[in-house]
Known about the structure:
The structure holds 2 protein chains of 2 kinds. Chain A has helices at residues 12-28, 33-43, 45-55, 93-101, 109-120, 130-143; strands spanning 59-63, 69-74, 80-84, 89-90, 124-127. By secondary structure, chain A is α+β, with helices and mostly antiparallel strands. Chain A has a 5-stranded mixed β-sheet with strand order 4-3-2-1-5. Chain A starts with 11 loop residues before the first helix and ends with a helix. Chain B contains 7 helices and 8 strands; from the N terminus they run ααβαβαβααβαββββ. An 8-stranded mixed β-sheet of chain B has the order 2-3-4-1-5-6-7-8, sandwiched between helices. At the A-B interface, α4 and α6 of A face α4, α6 and α7 of B.
Amino acid sequence: MAAASRAVTLPAVVEELLSEMAAAVRESARVPDEHLLLLKFVFGSSALQALDLVDRQSITLISSPSGRHVYQVLGSSGKTYTCLASCHYCSCPAFAFSVLRKSDSLLCKHLLAVYLSQVMGTCQQLSVSDKQLTDILLMKKNQEA
Amino acid sequence: MAETLKRVLSPGRAAGPREDMAAEVGPPLLLLGGPGSGKTALLFAAALEAAGEGRGPVLFLTRRPLQSLPRRTPAALDPLRLQLLCSAHEARGPAPFLLLLDGLEEYLAEDPEPQEAAYLAALLLDTAAHFSHQVGPGRGCGLLVALQTQEEGDSGDPLQLSLLQRYFPAQCWLQPVAPGSGQRCFRACLEPGGLGPRAEWRVAFQPDGEMTITPWPTQAGDPSSNQGPSSGGQP
């Protein structure tokens, strides 16, 4: 999977960590322990939850023939959340609260899981039609409120 | 798109070679100002400037007729404009290389939840990113969005504004200044989001509606000023 190019950049330390992890995966197909430790240091418990989501194959990259794509993450509660990864958005309540309202966190676990799955090159892939992708993007808006 | 806005604001400087400018997209830019501060005029001027470059289509989204006075119409605002962003990938034909949206405050007023505002901002970025992908490597699609703030330069809801600033690293503020001889004057202050120094211009609207833009006069004694006959001496 190509390296993510983000419209909203994360703090430099996070971007650097993610690109170092990607390089390590390319070289040795695994993430070194020191990167995992750094991940836990930066993100706390979200790191473990995000890694768990990756392990459980909970992330799906949905793309259409146009090339446009979104991510969906199956959360631990069984609900599916939609993430616009490059634009730093997740539909989960934690994102709305911790990231947007309180600015406590940089990311929710779902967004972190998406970034990790990009780095590690593991996620489910689903192809939909252009129209279906429109509905996914639109429906997401109606689900909130 | 900070670069396009800068070219609109400083037409004299754009006389140089354009090839290097073509590659530069710049961060998404939020244009802020109170009612009647000239956001729509500037946004539209940027659209015309970009369209005139002949690089491709420019997509301008607005709910109001451009020639109308900036009064909010009580008629039902069309929520389906969001459909345009969500279905942008369905359109055939060349992708725009500049996406402009006027009146972000109207979309936000429909749903004041922070998550909705974030989603709208993220969707705008995602649409521009998709167009960038279509336009091809080395070029990109810029994003310019106008947001009306309260009168008197008050930014209104600070939470909503800081939320939007997450998604729009560059901002240009339009603030009214004391008018002179029938003109309406505004100070345009561009913060390019870390990619360059802050820059300021004076935007004046004549009674006949004509817009003139001049660089904001620098302070007297400013060592970087190149105005005045003898600029060699440093204070």
